[in-house]
Write the structure tokens for this entry.
Amino acid sequence: LKLKAEFGAEAAAKIIASKDEISVVRSSLDSLRKDIKAAKEAEEVDETALAALLEKEEALVSDLATKEKALKDYIKSLRPTPPTPPTPPTPTNTATPAPTTSAN
């Protein structure tokens, strides 16, 4: 409801869908990490299977980072950018310069 009020129904639906995707990836990553832990703790470690699990973990971490960045960028694009404050005028020196005395 808060998202709808801030961004509109269409954008809110897209944000919610992205958050759901991120949640699914995180859940998969948690499950995979449990499998990796179990594989490492096994009496006989199957190095090939462990390497495949670690490779899959790396891919999920990358996918998660990509999805999170895309969501962050999308939300950022929806928010108006604050106006740049005006540059203050350069002060002009209107004081009369001090007289110079020459030592002869």
In short: The chain has a mean pLDDT of 85. The chain has three helices and no strands. Residues 15 and 75 are 8 Å apart (CA to CA). The radius of gyration is 29 Å.
